[in-house]
Amino acid sequence: MKVDVTTLAAKKAGTVDLADEVFALEPRGDILHRMVAWQLAKRQAGTHKTKGRSEISLTGKKFVKQKGSGGARHGDRKAPQFRGGGKAFGPVVRSHAFGMQKKVRALALKLALSSKAKSDNLVILDEAKFAEPKTKAAKEAFAKLGLTSVLVVDGAELDQNFALAARNLPNVDVLPVQGINVYDILRREKLVLTKAAVESLEARFK
Q: Which pTM was predicted?
């Protein structure tokens, strides 16, 4: 699949041949949904916690007679029904992560790339570099390319001037190729890959 390569000045810089096994798969919403759910569950802190009755500092002495009070036969102030008592079946510190096979995770990434290519939301950039870390220059470059909501993926090393220039722009994310993921691809309208990123991705999936 041949795709035009553009520059930050919105000028054509040749073409690139994208591998069909990475960028031309038929999108599957079920696998993409599973992958996004896996990513979001894995990033949850899981630090929510309430105290159970064994962790409450209250008396354990029987505070009312067994008979004659006209009420229930209580024996512990730490019971959940009392004010200040422990929480019954409350949340505990835990990991929300669940398993996902490597093959499924790899397939999900290829499907996300293919979905952007199929919907004409994939842009191939010659290189993502600026002479100076100026946000104004980044804003003008993205405006020329018609990019308002975009994920830019460069090679293994980001150009620091480009990364600094783009980080103050809303709805713009910049990642090295090893940080590419399904959630960040899908949450932005456009996906911009540099030629270095394309080479790394195709080598990764061969």
A: 0.83
